[in-house]
Amino acid sequence: MNDISPIIETIQRQLTWLPPWFASVVLLVLGALVAWWVHELVFRLVMRHLRNASLFKRSVVSRTRGPTRLAFLMIGIVLAASVAPLSRDGAGVLQQIMLVGIIVLLGWIALTALHIWTVLHLRRFKLDSTDNLLARKHVTQTRILQRVAAMLIVLVTISAALMTFEGVRQYGVSLLASAGAAGIVVGLALQPILKNLVAGVQLALTQPIRIDDALLVENEWGNVEEIRSTYVVVRLWDWRRLIVPLSYFMEKPFQNWTHEGSEIIGSAFLYTDFTVPVPELRQELERIVRETPLWDGRVVNLQVTDLKENTMEIRILVSAENAGKAFELRCYVREKMIGFLQKQYPNALPRVRMDLVSDRPPAPDLH
Fold first, then answer.
1. Which of 84, 108, 257, 347 has its CA 20 to 30 A from that of 357?
2. Would you state the pLDDT for residue 323?
3. Other C-beta atoms within 10 Å of 359: how many?
4. Which of the four pLDDT bands, split at 50, 70 and 90, describes residue 130?
5. 254 with 311: CB under 8 angstroms?
6. Which of 277, 266, 274, 237 is nearest to 333 (CA)?
7. Axis-axis angle for helices 181-206, 166-178 (nearest 10)
8. Alpha carbons 139 and 172: distance in angstroms, whole number
């Protein structure tokens, strides 16, 4: 500190010809610029050192760029303030700014640490694997809790920053103490947000839906693409997106086709003539499903489920690993079974029978 004192005194003597307020502004700006330059230099050196490291390590370090830059700027401004000829009022304003900056920096560090922890935790789970039930559970729970925690961190940071101002702190205390009409209006205004926030916590704990679950919602089939703080994005089969509030999944019934597993049984129906040989159809069905990788080898069944006036209803049940493969398997089975009937038993396809009966007497024999 004794070695720096002569340098500080020299700088102060060189700025005596400038107005104090202008000299203070110049020094603070110079301190911020020097801190910015030092941060960029240090950050580039660190990234160059990690040039051969994994993409994950480089991405984690890059996430800290913003908070470390703010920390360097604050340090540079504090060092410049020790040299600048600040007045008492100027020093008070700068102290207030630094206090708010420290609170924002702490909140930013908390958000960055939360993001890094989430990435590290989710690296162990792969959604693109065949059996991804455990991965979907952890990804869904972690993502929802991350958004809730991030929202709380932001709210606490903003509240702490506002409470450093005397007028705002008194207003906040009086508003909470009065609990009058303004509090009722704010409560009503925040009701949808709070409702979805609570629904998000419930959804993370109970997990009626997860990321990549196959759902049937509002008569639309699709997969859960994103779970946000207040809504869920469902990617429909034709690439449309269905936006559903979080509270919907806690208040209304819906179908989850992958809640405990992705395996599913699909059905297909044939309508044939009564003369169709059902045992041979059953044998052909078993041969068809064994030839396709869409079948998971669990369920294959063919039964006569109904008899109508002119047709016989035959139900086909086949199983697949997931809903997408089940849909393709159903279409494949229909196509092959119809082709088999057309080739082997064309007369077994649905036909309409009519008996023509004449009530008129036969014509008399004139010979």
1. 347
2. 82
3. 4
4. low
5. no
6. 266
7. 90
8. 38
CB within 8 A of 112, min separation 6: which ones? 63, 64, 66, 67
The residues near 302 (Cβ < 8 Å, ≥ 6 apart) are 278, 281, 282, 285, 314, 315, 316, 317
Long-range contacts for 240-244 (Cβ within 8 Å, ≥24 apart)? Answer: 242/217, 242/218, 244/217, 244/218
Q: Six-digit token pair at 151?
A: 């929202």
| C-alpha span between 142 and 207 (Å, rounded) | 11
Q: What is the mean pLDDT of residues 206-216?
A: 84
pTM across the whole model: 0.49
Q: For residue 291, what are its two tokens?
A: 């030839």
Q: What stretch of H or E contains 222?
A: strand 220-227
Relative orientation angle of helices 20-49 and 55-63, to the nearest 10 degrees? 170
Length of the chain: 367
Q: Which two tokens stand for residue 252?
A: 């209304």
Q: What is the 3-state secondary structure (H, E, C) of 137-189?
A: HHHHHHHHHHHHHHHHHHHHHHHHHHCCCHHHHHHHHHHHHHCCHHHHHHHHH
Give the tokens for residue 311: 């047709």
